Amino acid sequence: MKIWLNGAILDADSACISPTDRGFTLGDGVFETMQARNGAPLRLDAHLARLRRGAGLIGLPLPRLDYAGALLATLEANGLRDAALRLTLSRGPAPRGVLPPAEPTPTVLISAGPLPDLTPVRLVLAKVTRRNEFSPLSGIKSLNYLDSILARQEAAARGADDALMLNTQGRIAETTMANVFLVLNGNLVTPPLSDGALPGIMRAEVLKAGAVEQAILPADIARAREIFITTSLGIRSVDEVEGRPLGDFTIAARMRAAIG
Fold first, then answer.
1. Which of 31, 167, 171, 229 would give a disulfide with 133, using CB separation of 3.0 to 4.6 Å?
2. Neighbour-count burial of 152, counting CB atoms closer than 10 A to its CB (0-12 exposed, 13-18 middle, 19+ buried)
3. Residue closest to 228 by CA, chosen among 210, 200, 255
């Protein structure tokens, strides 16, 4: 696999990042995952805008780069046209300590790989941890994913593919890696950002297509006619939640056809 690292295309196995890089030592950075089709990243402007917001929130200067060109170069180096792209931005090498350096040298890394399978998934409600809707980090894609990792490990131990995460008030926020949508009383609904949901790029597209924001409780999961999850890489139906089978994939299929 070839990667783009600080301006150069390198073999992933031989590429090096400093052991003092704050992305490695402290999770100090942000990232974007995006879908590429026919040799070009989809919704690039929206992804770069979210990257800019996230970097701004943590006070990380966004390097002046030709991001589109770097992403295309990474696709070409790997011989890919349809792919999952990841753009990672860390604060870069720095001395020990929590306080960031006044003038950081950010690290920019781009990788590409095959798109994931979008077959239906099984969900459980995470019990081991919760999402903090009061943290400003709930609104950005930071490099620290430990809460999600704990919940995902719990899901795997319980024979599921992903976990729904509750916020501190007991409302559903999202899964460990995706936004969630439910069909309730004939309406397509998703948790509001104020409940800890990430402002997903695909989530925004589904909202444009007619979904509405609504607080969702665990009890709503038990009566939802249909559930699906969204990431920038696609829309996946849910065929089981907390052991309850779901067989209606109608709205998810309609959204895939309309949005992609």
1. 167
2. buried
3. 255
Report if pTM > 0.90. Answer: yes
| Closest to 23 in 3D by CA, of 103, 104, 85 | 104
> Residue 191 and residue 219: Cα distance in Å, rounded?
14
